[in-house]
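Bench log, entry 3. Co-assembly request; chain sequences pasted below exactly as received.
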Amino acid sequence: MPFVSFEGVDGAGKSTHVNWLAEQLRAHGKTVTVTREPGGTPLGEALRSVLLNQTMSADTELLLMFAARAEHLAQVIRPALARGEWVLSDRFTDASYAYQCGGRGIAENRLRILETWVQQGLQPDITLLFDVDLEIARERRAAQGEPDRFEREQQAFFERVRAVYLQRAQAEPRRIRVIRTDRTLEAIRTELLHMFASWWQV
Ligand code: TYD
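Structure output for the full assembly:
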C-alpha cells in the first residue's frame, strides 16, 4: 500500500494535513499507520528529544536522524507496508536533504550513502511538500510555544531548507507534489482529495 511522506519548513502546517488525510483514508475503510520523524519508535522518540534539544555537530545530527530512521523502517514502516497498510509519515528523508544538506551544509553524497544503506531502495510513493511563504512560517513558529533547536534558526537557514525542498520537487515531480499553502484550508483539502481520489480504490 502507499507510503506517503509530508514535508515542509517548520510552520508550513503539514501536521494538520497528516491527521486529516488519515481520517479520510479511514473513512474509506483503509488501515492507516500515522507516524513521524525523527521518532515513530521508542528509541526514535528518545533520539528526537536529543536532536531537538541538545547542541551537536552537523555530522552527529545527520547520523542520529538516520539511526532513528533505520529503527523506524525496521519496526514500523516496513512491517506496516507488509501488512498492506497505508503509511503516513510526518517527514522522512527529504527533510534530511533539506535541513542537514541545505540548512547545515553537509555534502549530499554523504547523505546518499546513508539513504542507500538504510532504505535499500525504499522511497515514499508520494511526498506532499507544503510550501509556505517564509514570513508566514516565521509568524506561525513565533505563535507556537517554546521553539526547539531547529525552530530557533535564522531565516537564512529556512531559506536554504526551502530551496532544497523545491529543487528536489523539480527533480522528482512525479513523487514530490508541491502544495501551495497561500490558500484556504478547504482549497488545500480539495486538492488533496483530488490527488488521492484514484487511490481510494487501491
Ligand atoms: P517537526 O515535524 O517540525 O515537528 P513539530 O511539528 O512537532 O515541531 O520536526 C522536527 C524537526 O526535525 C524539524 O525542525 C525538522 C527536523 N528534521 C531534520 O532536520 N532532519 C530530518 O531528517 C527530519 C526527519 C527532521
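Residues 10, 15, 37-38, 65, 90-91, 95-96, 99-100, 150 surround thymidine-5'-diphosphate (CB under 6 Å). The longest strand covers residues 126-131.
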